[in-house]
Design goal:
The complex is a heterodimer of chains A (about 220) and B (about 270). Helix content of chain A is about 75%, strand content about 0%. Chain A is built from 11 helices and no strands. The longest helix of chain A is centred in the N-terminal third of the chain and has 54 residues. The N and C termini of chain A lie far apart (about 90 Å). About 20% of the residues of chain A have low confidence. Classes of the chains: A mainly alpha (about 220), B alpha/beta (about 270). At the A-B interface, α1 of A face α11 and α12 of B.
Chain lengths: ~220, ~270
């Protein structure tokens, strides 16, 4: 008969040894996740401080969000944008800093949807957008105004969305559709052509086709 | 009180006893192949395989089955020298024993065999033939050339020597039967049948599929290693059964015990 106690001890050591690669694997995963979270958090802080400082020096404008996408195209080919309530789009330095420093975004879509039929609710959302520059708000306004056939406002809010983030395809499409609906077909075609060249979007190509055929 | 595992472990004591022979699909094929080869006019047949693949027990079984039909002889251990070997051959051929201090005249023996052609057919099975010297193997070949004596040469070699062994014999041998390690299915059947043959139904049922997989992984399907492993497993179970019954369950074999047996036998190391 063997020395079972010794064998048991040996087996325990074997099990411990067998677990080592597993523990190392788990440790690597945890460390990986931890460092990623830490990195992302740091990145956010840097971004916040950057936007805050930019807000201070920007003298009450929101130029940092203005891209050269739709804006340039629109500026070159359409003067109707001048009619857009630019003064509304501006926010004070104080407000902007406050909003970004707080680090909180208010996304109350349920509330917005519930009261979307009321004009006052649109005002509320517009106000909120000016405070927080949340593209969900501006895109919502663009879509809502487009559905209500208020193409001018739809165009304006699509543009606002694009100023914050020029990669939102929906805002490009609403912008082009709103343009077309207002009779500016050539501009709509030009905008879509520029966008398609950049992104090769199939949706945009379909829309371009429709506009060219006069279905919109 | 005697533990149930005490008797079970005895089942796996390594032996070449034909009563312990377990009929498996793979071994049955090898057996039939060997039996078929014997009936062919071949002079030498090579039974080849790694240690523990069941060569000896297969030869034993063949001897047991054919001993009343044919003149078949089984040399289980190699002769220590040429003189002793030819004494044994002389005895088989002439049924007479030579005095100790005499030597067999090999040429006369070959002639004797040639004279027997057509009258008698003798089959001699040489186990562990890797231990015979090349000179002796040459003489065995010459004897087989007489066509009165047929040799079944069983041999194994270590990993590196496998090919050399095969190549060395291939030019002299007309048929090769190779035995392999058992597949998982065969090994499972082997363990089950071994236990059931001795009426250990409960113990046979306590070994689950995952246990068989683990045993096969450790033993690589080698029958001798399997016997060792099962013996050790039951020995550990026996110890627990007698001394710490809480550590052993009758309805299943814990993985821990299999791993302990593997540690004991050196299949795994700390």
């Amino acid at each position: 008969m063997y020395n079972i106690e010794l064998l048991e001890e040996e087996w325990k050591r074997y099990k411990r040894k067998k677990r080592v690669p597993f523990i190392i694997g788990i440790a690597i995963i945890v460390l990986g996740i931890g460092s990623t979270v830490f990195f992302l958090k740091n990145k956010n802080d840097i971004f916040k401080s950057y936007t805050a400082s930019k807000g201070k020096t920007a003298k009450s404008d929101i130029d940092i969000y203005i891209d050269r996408g739709i804006t340039e195209v629109a500026e070159k080919h359409n003067d109707t944008l001048i009619d857009a309530p630019i003064e509304i789009a501006k926010v004070t330095e104080e407000k902007e800093t406050e909003v970004y420093n707080s680090g909180e975004k208010k996304k109350l879509h349920i509330e917005v949807i519930d009261v979307s039929k009321k004009k006052s609710s649109f005002k509320e959302i517009e106000k909120r957008f000016r405070m927080g520059h949340d593209i969900d708000d501006s895109l919502f306004l663009a879509k809502s105004y487009y559905q209500r056939k208020n193409y001018k406002k739809a165009e304006y809010w699509a543009l606002q969305t694009n100023k914050v983030n020029q990669n939102i395809e929906e805002s490009w499409l609403i912008f082009a559709k709103a343009k077309a609906k207002q009779g500016h077909r050539n501009e709509a075609i030009h905008i879509l052509t520029v966008y398609i060249r950049r992104t090769h979007s199939i949706e945009a190509k379909v829309l371009l086709n429709k506009i060219k055929k006069g279905r919109i | 009180m005697k533990s149930r595992y005490e008797s079970a472990k005895e089942v796996f004591v390594d032996s070449v006893d034909v009563d312990d022979y377990i009929e498996l699909e793979s071994s049955l094929t090898a057996y039939q192949q060997l039996e078929h080869s014997i009936n062919k006019p071949l002079k030498m047949i090579l039974l080849f395989g790694r240690p523990g693949t069941g060569k000896s027990i297969l030869l034993n079984r063949l001897h047991d089955r054919l001993k009343y039909q044919k003149e078949i002889y089984y040399f289980d251990t190699p002769a220590i020298n040429e003189k002793e070997f030819f004494h044994k051959i002389f005895k088989v051929l002439t049924k007479k024993t030579l005095p100790q201090n005499t030597e067999v005249n090999f040429s006369a023996l070959v002639n004797y065999c040639k004279n027997m052609r057509g009258k008698r057919e003798i089959i001699i099975m040489l186990d562990e033939a890797q231990m015979y010297s090349p000179e002796m193997m040459e003489k065995i070949r010459l004897l087989s050339d007489s066509r009165a004596v047929k040799f079944i040469v069983s041999l194994h070699k270590t990993e590196d020597e496998d090919l050399i062994a095969k190549e060395h014999f291939q030019s002299r041998i007309w048929e090769v039967v190779e035995l392999q390690n058992a597949s998982l299915k065969d090994q499972t059947t082997y363990i089950h049948k071994k236990l059931l043959k001795k009426n250990f139904f409960e113990i046979a049922n306590s070994i689950k599929e995952k246990n068989f997989k683990l045993i096969h992984k450790f033993t690589k399907g080698n029958y001798r290693e399997c016997n060792k492993m099962m013996f050790t497993i039951f020995e550990i179970c026996e110890y627990y059964d007698k001394n710490e019954p809480s550590k052993v369950r009758y309805d299943r074999i814990p993985k821990r015990i299999i791993e302990m047996a593997a540690l004991k036998l050196g299949y795994i190391n700390v």
